[in-house]
Specification:
The protein has one domain: NAD(P)-binding Rossmann-like Domain (Rossmann fold, 3-Layer(aba) Sandwich), CATH 3.40.50. The chain is globular and about 45 Å long. The chain contains four helices and five strands. The two termini are 23 Å apart. The model has no long low-confidence stretch (mean pLDDT 94). Helices cover 36% and strands 11% of the residues. It binds NADP nicotinamide-adenine-dinucleotide phosphate (NAP). NADP nicotinamide-adenine-dinucleotide phosphate binds at residues 5-8, 40, 44, 67, 69, 121-122, 124-125, 127-130, 134, 138.
């Protein structure tokens, strides 16, 4: 099993699409918040996945879990009254949307294998990422990750869920 858990939320320079710090291209590229975030949360997950895929293909029941966030759900974003819509963090949230795209595309690519690929949201956990203000202990959040990592052969692939069930893409 592979759990793509590593992720960052860059405290400086994130914001709404109109203001998020992209970085500038002059003679050299200055890496901005958006790129730094995508580097870890998307490219990192993809790179690690590509490296581990040969090993996962040799497993009887390969499982890939992308640790995403409801903040990356476009369905949640565009539903009326969504409280997350006010969060000025385009870099972080869109990185999770893209991670979800990896889940969907990889699940389709691997559909004929025994490997299952899913995104999960672990909920709002008190970790370093948010300075410990999360609502629950990380051990609680880990439960849904473990569930996705230990799905049996009848379990889903190409889905996005949290402790309460399906999360819209
Ligand atoms: N906390 C929440 O409420 C929440 C909610 C939804 C989703 N998530 C997601 O859950 C995952 C875990 O986050 P967390 O809350 O546990 O945050 P965290 O305490 O800040 O942990 C982040 C982890 O990612 C690793 N990491 C960061 N950059 C890396 C890099 N370039 N290479 C390798 N490892 C790197 C860190 O390793 P080092 O310690 O060695 O730097 C650390 O183990 C993330 O994907 C996050 O987006 C968190």
């Amino acid at each position: 099993m592979l759990v793509n858990n590593a992720g960052i939320a860059v405290p400086d320079g994130d914001g709404r699409p109109s203001t998020v710090e992209i970085g500038t291209i002059q003679r050299t590229v200055e890496v901005g918040t958006l790129q730094r975030t995508l580097d870890v949360n998307v490219y990192g997950a993809l790179r690690v996945t590509q490296v581990f895929l040969p090993l996962l293909r040799r497993a009887d029941a390969g499982r890939i879990v992308n640790v995403s966030s409801t903040l990356g759900s476009l369905g949640a974003l565009t539903s009326p009254g969504n409280p997350f819509a006010e969060i000025p963090a385009f870099a972080y949230t869109s990185s999770k949307t893209l991670l979800n795209a990896l889940t969907g595309w990889l699940a389709v690519e691997l559909a004929s294998t025994s490997i299952k690929v899913n995104s999960v949201c672990p909920g709002h956990n008190a970790t370093d990422m948010n300075g410990g203000v999360g609502a629950q202990h990380p051990a609680e959040g880990a439960r849904v990750v473990v569930r996705a990592a230990t799905l049996d052969a009848d379990g889903p692939t190409g889905t996005f869920f949290d402790v309460n069930g399906t999360v819209p893409w």
